[in-house]
Amino acid sequence: SPSNGSSRTLSAGEMYLFDTGGQYLDGTTDITRTVHWGQPTPLQKEAYTRVLMGSIDLSRLVFPSNTAGGMVESSAHRALWDIGLNYGHGTGHGIGNFLSVHEWPVGFQSNNVPLAAGMFTSIEPGYYRDGEFGIRIEDVALVVEAQTKEKPFLTFEVVSLVPYDRNLIDLSLLSPEQIQYLNSYYKKIRERVGPELQRQQLEEAYKWLQESTKP
């Protein structure tokens, strides 16, 4: 909690992580984004990009039904592991509909139940460097049936519709499949959020959204 003793002024020259959420009659949100309004260091940019890669890799993973979350969790770590980085927190937790923000027993730990269509979970890899900066990307995802020849296989559909910070993404690290995923995600954000911002006459927000979701 902020206090007069510990508070300090934010500057444009550092990373800013904001963990947001609300509970509504028709659902619960839990979304984290990390931004940098200045010039990020090479390490900050690479670490952020690799956290994003892990988020994308887990979000687009196709896996057999009745697979435990702990079996697929490593795909969120792999891009960080490739350069000797890691995070020490959970990769995600179940999210209730107008119930608990952290809802048992869904998630990616060894003692969670197998994933099944209709479950909501967060997907939230990150990276923290003590005393310097913290990164986390958190989305809410719905477990859905995958479009595969053999049934039943599952995958995730990210339902959080918030762009990632372009200033922190090193495109040279992303695979063509990851870039394709991002473009598809941004197209969905434009189509679903853009008209609502226009309806509410939030022109500044609409302009920001168009800029932040360019291919």
Automatic annotation (TrEMBL):
InterPro entries: Creatinase/aminopeptidase-like, Pept_M24, Peptidase_M24_C, X-Pro_aminopeptidase_P. Residues 152-215 form the Peptidase M24 C-terminal domain. Keywords: Aminopeptidase, Hydrolase, Protease. It holds the Pfam family Peptidase_M24_C. The keyword Transport does not apply. Residues 6-144 form the Peptidase M24 domain. GO terms for molecular function: aminopeptidase activity. Belongs to the peptidase M24B family. This is XPP2 aminopeptidase. It comes from Onychorhynchus coronatus (Royal flycatcher).
